Fold:
Amino acid sequence: QVQLVESGGGLVQAGDSLRLSCAASGFTFSLSRMGWFRRAPGKEREFVAVISRSNIGTEYDDVVKGRFTISRDNAKNTVYLQMNSLKPEDTGVYYCAKMFSTGRDANYWGQGTQVTVSS
Structure:
């Protein structure tokens, strides 16, 4: 079965950086688009970023564009989210996702990792 396990969350100060990792198993990772979502306190889960199967194409929500970078290592079945210049409004639970073949929606999510940015 599909398993997505996130790691790397934590408590940081505004302006700091964090790198999230997601270890994937149970499916052919190299053939799947992968993404990240987040859920801020009291809000719905929202799209953050997606990366193509071949590590060439990426898309970002406008709120994180220029600060976050999604990448993947198909040899390690792992997808990453490098987050720079973090802001308090980036606080939330971050979820790794196995994306549908097109668009910004997913059919599987991990359990999530908490990111808290203090001001």
Remarks:
- The longest strand covers residues 18-25.
